[in-house]
Amino acid sequence: MRRVLIITYYWPPSGGSGVQRWVKFAKYLPNEGWQPVIYTPENPELTAVDKTLAAEIPPEAEIVKRRIFEPYGIYRALMGKGSSTDLKTLTAGSDGGEVNPVNGGKKSWKQRLSLYIRGNFFIPDPRVLWVRPSVRFLKSYLKDHPVDAIVTTGPPQSMHLIGLELSKATGLPWLADFRDPWTKMFYFKHLGLTPKSEAKHCELEKKVLDGASKVISVSPMVQKEFQEMTSTPVELITNGFDPEDFNKEIDFDENFNITHTGLFASDGNPDVLWKVLSDKCREDLEFKNLLRIRIVGKTDKEILDSIQSAGLGDNLINLGYQSHEVAVREQRNASVLILPLRKEPEYEAVLPGKLFEYLASRRPILGIGQTAGAMANVVRETGSGVVYDWHEERNIRTYIDFCWDEFKNDELRDNTSDISKYDRRTTTRQLAKFLDEMTKAR
User: Fold this and answer.
1) Element spanning 293, H or E
2) Residues 136 and 117 occupy one common structural domain
3) Residue 19 lies in a domain
4) Contact 5, 137 (CB under 8 A)
5) Are residues 221 and 108 in the same domain?
6) Structural domain of residue 147, as residue ranges?
7) Do 236 and 169 fall into the same domain?
């Protein structure tokens, strides 16, 4: 069996979609003739914990952990003990409780300062201090434990810098997997970068794209953006779903459940949806009594306040962050799965990881956001629901009415379209194919 070194910052017990992507790849790679060798920090910052994901790691996997130094002690001294350190949750607004604070509203001077330091002093990210010691260690480690290929997955994009240097030193083929864009990521413009810092990001991004044997993107639009930046082959492997997660029996309740799982950020607050639900509650007592708004995951305070302000507090069930297993159960128990995107132009290119599990749940999807974006294209292609712009109140109301009528008649549709190309086993075969191509080309 050939061996592939996978360099990732996020690994169980960390939770989240980035962890799931590579745990699932590792789970199915041995079936394709590849043994995963995971290199990951021994002491990472855990912004979310999901111990259930450890059960997915195959016995063939070789796990190598090394300590990492991250300069978050200084940050916490400035911001206060317990402050978040993840870029997507960094520098929360003054009222606290935000998931998406980088481009949030008002910030204190401490928050502005911490974001400036984060963006300009640690390029591309605070994990950059792990690059040199990792390259030094892995060069030695691989002499006694050889591999046939290298994979890096980011963010954090510093993982790609490890792959760049290690590939140069060893001559091994290297695949760079971008779960998110780099300089075209939606929050990049909010980092307060100096022109010099921005140029450095662009320089490093170009070096990674040109230095890799192959580049992987998770979205067709991001794939196209990268293809315009480099001559390196840029392939597409979307996120997906694992059928084994969806074959367990569940007990469906009797409520009309409007469900959201995963991060729920204030700049994607579907306030028009809350208005639609509030109006319908006033008009239909049965709807009001059966409506449940089920929120599973880290959620901005602004979202919860908006639901309360719409008079829907009694209908709200906020479960907070839960394991992946619980999130899947909630998806399958939904009457309508809602998928609001962030109100950022760059988000048009994004395919949220939860989308594919929503598809596997076979429940109607109500997408709210860019109607010409990547997410909308998949929803239309699979016939799994609808996508409307944030302000399309009439269309949103029509869809809620339709789903409610179907629910009352016990006819709420079960999407039966072919989604096999998003099966994790299929996406892993794609990955193995690319690894085979890289190693044959040596």
Assistant:
1) strand 291-296
2) no
3) yes
4) no
5) no
6) 2-68+126-240+424-440
7) yes
């320089």: which residue's tokens?
A: 203
Q: Are residues 234 and 269 in the same domain?
A: no
3-class SS of residue 317: strand
pLDDT, tens digit, 9 for 90 and up, residues 169-208:
999 999 999 999 999 988 888 888 899 999 999 999 999 9
Q: For residue 112, which phi and psi values (nearest 5 degrees)?
A: -65, -40
Three-class secondary structure of residue 86 per DSSP: coil
Return the CATH number at 226. 3.40.50.2000
Residue 405 burial (C-beta neighbours within 10 Å; 0-12, 13-18, 19+) = exposed
273/382 same-domain check: yes
Burial class (CB in 10 A: 0-12, 13-18, 19+), 366: buried
Look at residue 416 and tell me if it is in a domain: no
Closest CA to 212 of 156, 153, 130: 153
Same domain assignment for residues 139 and 288:
no
Residue type, 143: K
Distances (CA, A) of 63 to 36, 46, 432: 8, 18, 19
Give Cα separations from 350 to 9, 70, 278, 354, 374 (angstroms): 21, 28, 30, 11, 6
Which residue in the block uniquely carries the two structure tokens 């790609």? 160
| Closest to 352 in 3D by CA, of 9, 20, 13, 28 | 20
The DSSP annotation for 11-57 comes to -TTB-SHHHHHHHHHHHHGGGGTEEEEEEEESS---SSB-GGGGGGS
What is the tally of structural domains in the chain?
Answer: 3
103 and 212 fall within a common domain? no
Q: pLDDT tens-digit profile of 50-59?
A: 999 999 999 9
Name the pTM for this structure.
0.90
